[in-house]
Design a protein that fits this description.
alpha/beta, Rossmann fold, two-stranded parallel sheet, globular
């Protein structure tokens, strides 16, 4: 296929697509991978996309799932959602070095956003250098968010609306089915698929690893800041749906009325429910995947421990200061003192373990010469509670299942807000895609070098299942010494980093972790 002059055409099972050639990559945008989940298909599992005749243009991104802005998005541009929104949102995008039979590794990105915001067409991915540097095929996708993708209505409607609260996950499976059936036409290898994602995207991957419907769809997984236990119980899912209906003024569930609701009305009710939960439970999102007993038969981490993902090679890690981003957006955090810290922690972990946890974190931080005030300790414990400890649990489980599993700790610090964000949540994404926002990620030779090393490791893992590479060096599996790759200005392997704090979590078990 000519890079200039002639149309850029790819063939799929649904029909022909015309893309474009940009900056050394063939790009296809807005490819429908499932039927629009609208009308009577709202809150149902995805259906196959209909075929078309002729050549369909794939030069514009498709609409993204309807979403409200997160609190703080006026301060952090990365949290804003300025793209066109529509319930007809099940589209994916492909970037590839060649429309040939090279059978390149395929990397399928699942975006984050607390299960309520985000898309597969965010600015971060658009001008990526990952594809050309790693000679891989990149796929990004939209999936249903919030009330549209993660609200269980099956129980309170007696099955008249069959929504399990896992429709967003089933969308991801449908996208992986599309990849299996079509990616060879884009120069990719359908039997060498790596899913990778961040935050809710990584948590989704953890869910897929425990989902019967996703088995066999991918052989490798890279989880950035998310594990396999951020789910809600069926009881929690029913309670959230019941509150949602109450906000709508429905004293009893009316399936026809629910299916007839305007998109904006659903978003408004979701926002009201989110504000209620923010005040009551100090959380940002009211919806998350539901352990419904069917799509998710068990807490995914428990299924993984039993071998549900035993054939999947796994790389997972976290950023050192994940929660600094969220606490920056919390006005109450500016008043943090010892009493407020303890009250917050009693809402997170069993009250009897709070004092010992605080002491372990204070001792560990002071031993490394780090700040150990109430806000510092709270942020560190929140970061580990939501992200690091679940990720380590997944890495340990996969290591016990017979394949090497790899862990990282990203410690590069953001220059934003005079360094107040540290190595915060989402900071690594720009380095992965080679598209760093200088104000958030930093810039210069050091940033460029770290980005290249991360890209090389990620694509090496996608190609071989081992993230070791020339630019970064040997990357040892996590077991048996808790070997961790520290990703910073000077990358290095380190055994059991921040071990005193990690050990404090051994005193009790967290079966599941609700999202922020």
């Amino acid at each position: 296929m000519s890079q200039a002059g002639n149309p850029v055409i790819a063939h799929t099972r649904q029909g022909q697509l015309e893309g474009s050639f940009e900056k050394g990559q063939f790009v296809f945008r807005g490819i429908p991978y499932a039927a629009p989940p609208t009308g009577r298909l709202r809150w149902r599992a995805p259906r196959p996309a209909k075929p078309w005749t002729g050549v369909r243009s794939a030069k514009a991104f498709g609409p993204v799932s309807p979403q409200n802005p997160l609190p703080g998005s006026d301060v952090m541009a990365a949290l804003s959602a300025a793209e066109p929104q529509d319930e007809d949102c099940l589209y994916l995008n492909v970037w590839t070095p060649g429309l040939d039979d090279a059978a390149r590794p395929v990397m399928v990105w699942i975006h984050g956003g607390a299960f309520i915001i985000g898309s597969g067409s965010e600015k971060m991915y658009r001008d990526n250098t990952l594809v050309t540097r790693g000679d891989v095929v990149l796929v990004t996708l939209n999936y249903r968010l919030g009330a549209f993708g993660f609200m269980n209505l099956r129980e309170i409607t007696g099955g008249r609306i069959p929504g399990t609260g896992c429709e967003g996950l089933l969308d991801q499976v449908a996208a992986l089915d599309w990849v299996r059936d079509n990616i060879a036409s884009f120069g990719g290898d359908p039997v060498n698929v790596t899913v990778f994602g961040e935050s809710a995207g990584a948590m989704s991957i953890g869910d897929l690893m425990g989902m019967p419907a996703a088995r066999g769809r991918f052989g490798k997984a890279i989880l950035e800041s998310g594990g396999a236990n951020t789910v809600g119980t069926l009881e929690d899912g029913v309670a959230a749906a019941t509150e949602f209906l109450g906000i709508l003024g429905m004293t009893r569930p009316d399936p026809d009325a629910l299916l007839g609701l305007a998109t904006e009305r659903i978003l408004d009710a979701q926002q009201q429910l989110a504000l209620l939960m923010r005040r009551r439970d100090n959380r940002l999102t009211p919806f998350q995947p539901v352990v419904d007993g069917d799509v998710l038969p068990d807490i995914p981490l428990e299924a993984i421990k039993k071998g549900s993902a035993s054939g999947i090679r796994t790389l997972a890690g976290t950023n050192r200061d994940e929660f600094k981003l969220f606490n920056f957006m919390d006005p109450a955090f500016r008043r943090m003192d010892e009493d407020l810290m303890l009250r917050r922690l009693r809402d997170l972990i069993p009250a009897g373990h709070v004092d010992g946890m605080v002491e372990a974190y204070r001792r560990g931080r002071q031993g490394r010469g780090e700040a150990a005030g109430p806000g510092d300790i709270l942020t560190a414990i929140q970061s580990d509670f939501m992200f690091r400890i679940p990720v380590l649990g997944l890495v340990e489980a996969q290591g016990r299942n017979g394949l090497p599993a790899y862990n990282y700790l990203f410690s590069w610090e953001s220059p934003a807000l005079k360094g107040a964000l540290g190595s915060c949540h989402a900071l690594e994404i720009g380095f992965v895609f080679g598209n760093c926002d200088p104000s958030f990620c930093g810039s210069g030779p050091g940033a460029d070098a770290l980005s290249r090393k991360i890209q090389d490791a990620w694509t090496s893992f996608a190609r071989t299942g081992d993230p070791s590479c020339d630019s970064l060096g040997a990357w040892e599996p996590y077991a048996p010494s808790r070997a961790t790759m520290v990703l910073d200005r000077e990358c290095r392997m380190e055994d059991a980093p921040r071990e005193e704090e990690r050990r404090a979590w051994d005193a009790f078990e967290m079966l599941l972790t609700k999202p922020i």
